[in-house]
Amino acid sequence: MSGATVRGRFDALPGNLRGALWILMTAFVMTLQSAIVKELGEDVHTLVIVFFRCLFALIILLPVFIRRGPAMIRTKRPWMHVARSVVGIVSMSCMFFALAYLPLADVTALVFTMPLFMIVFAVLLLGESIRWRRWTATAVGFCGVLVVLQPGSGFEWASLVALTSACLSALVGVLVKKLSVTDSASTMVFYFAALGLVFSAIPAAFVWKMPSDTDLSLLFVIALLGTMGQLFAVYAWEAGEATAVAPFDYTRLIFAAIMGYILFAEVPEIATVAGAVLIVASTLYIARREARLRTDRPDVALAASLDRP
């Protein structure tokens, strides 16, 4: 069967089904990326991994930037791009650091708290009005966080680093939302790719150790998987309705549990599973409420996701 035939049959599928398949591929490649980061974390410093993640992502995206031309760099908010890049790099660094110390499933569960922090930032920074239903869902989600963290019972401080990554990722989402009023998605992607490389190079220089050829190959795979996952996510939101597509993103938890067990002999604890259920239920409810209130912007979603690991 030719590639054109396969693509034709795929395009003929209902939009929600295509969206679900795209998001499943997103979940798989992004979880695989995290697993490789975790494996590399034993030999390569987190800050060096972040630097090469940015460098190789910029190289992969460079043909797109050249094709778009100089109009892409025009912006009225350069300092907001700087802020977005700094926050995004710190968020990525926190997640990569947490992956080196925590089970893959734990980090994945904690990163899914990002929509909960978005609710808080939407009120504090965007002046949005949030009704009691979403506040209740947010409270339930943070209860799930406490279950995963198990404060006072074998608490891992690296869990707070993973939670910080989710919080900063939510802040990135707020900054992207503000930037989207005046700047295109391609402009936002360009500035993060360029500024992210600069800001990641500075801390990496203090801990620099050149990775081996094998590690460099894996670092390129990390950037490639991350870029693929972000593009797949955009295709998913374009193809299907948010309420139909969003639930399938939580398969990352399943992929994380499977990869964690196969690659690192990690068995998720009961507390992780229970907390993840609460986090998923609350964020899924919030996503459905958001979808009813506004139309999703796939282009902005891509810009917001490019600085997420």
Structure description:
- It is built from 14 helices and no strands.
- By secondary structure, the protein is mainly α.
- It has one domain.
- The model has no long low-confidence stretch (mean pLDDT 84).
Provide a brief overview of the structure.
The protein has helices at 3-11, 15-40, 46-68, 78-101, 104-111, 114-124, 132-149, 158-179, 185-206, 213-239, 242-245, 251-264, 270-293, 298-305. By secondary structure, the chain is mainly α.
Topology:
Layout: H1 3-11, H2 15-40, H3 46-68, H4 78-101, H5 104-111, H6 114-124, H7 132-149, H8 158-179, H9 185-206, H10 213-239, H11 242-245, H12 251-264, H13 270-293, H14 298-305
Low-confidence segments: none
Instruction: Kindly report the oligomeric state of this protein.
Output: single chain
Mean pLDDT: 84
Q: How many H/I helices?
A: 14
Distance between the termini: 35 Å
Percentage of helical residues?
Answer: over 70%
**H and E order:** HHHHHHHHHHHHHH
**Which structural category fits the helices and strands?**
mainly alpha
How does the major sheet shape up? none
Give a quick set of tags describing it.
309 residues; mainly alpha; 14 helices; 78% helix
